[in-house]
Amino acid sequence: MSQKLATLQAALESVLGDQIKRLDLVKGELTLTVSAANYHAICQTLRDHAELRFEQLIDLCGMDYSQYKDGAESIYADGPRFAVVIHLLSLSKNWRLRLRVFALDDDFPIVASVNDIWNAANWFEREAFDLYGIVFDGHVDLRRILTDYGFIGHPFRKDFPTTGYVEMRYDPDQKRVIYQPVTIEPREITPRIIREDNYGGLH
Length: 203
Known about the structure:
Layout: H1 3-16, E1 22-26, E2 29-34, H2 39-48, E3 56-64, E4 82-90, E5 95-102, E6 110-112, H3 121-132, E7 135-137, E8 166-171, E9 176-181
Parallel strand pairs: 2-5, 6-7
Antiparallel strand pairs: 1-2, 3-4, 4-5, 8-9
C-alpha cells in the first residue's frame, strides 16, 4: 500500500470509526462499505470533512450480486442482492475512494439519494433505477433515462430474460406505437461445424 493510501485509510478510520462496515484495498484503490442507514450522512462527511474533502462524484452504478451466491468462496454469497457503488475524487487531496452500500430489501431495493450532496449523481441514480430497479429515496426526478417509459422490468438484473417481456411496433391501423407480448420464441442455437479433410490443399 502506498503512503497516500495509508494516509487515506487512517483518515477514514479516524473520522468514520465504527460506521465502517468494511474497508478493503481492491485493485490499488480503497473500497469503503457502509450501511444503508448511515450512507447519506457518511457521504456528507466524505465531502465536507477537512481530512477527506471528496468534492467530486465521478461515477455511480448499480450492482446485482445474485449470482455471487453460486460461488462458495464469495464474500457476497449470503448478503443482500443489490448494491450501489460510487467513485469519489478529492481534488484538494488528490485521492480516490470507492464507496459501496447494499440495499437491505431484495424485493424493493432502496437507498438514499446523494443528489443533494453531489449533483452529478442525478442521471447516474436514474440510470441505476432504470437498469436495476434500485429506488433512490429523496431523488427529485426519479424516472427512466435509457429505456422508454412503457418498458417493463429492469434489463441489467441477472434474471432479466434476454428477449425482454414486451416488444413494441408501429401499428398502421392505430397510427401509433403499441406494446405487445414478445413473439420471439427462445431457442438454443448449436453452431454447425464444417470440416473438410483437404481444407487449404493440405493432405
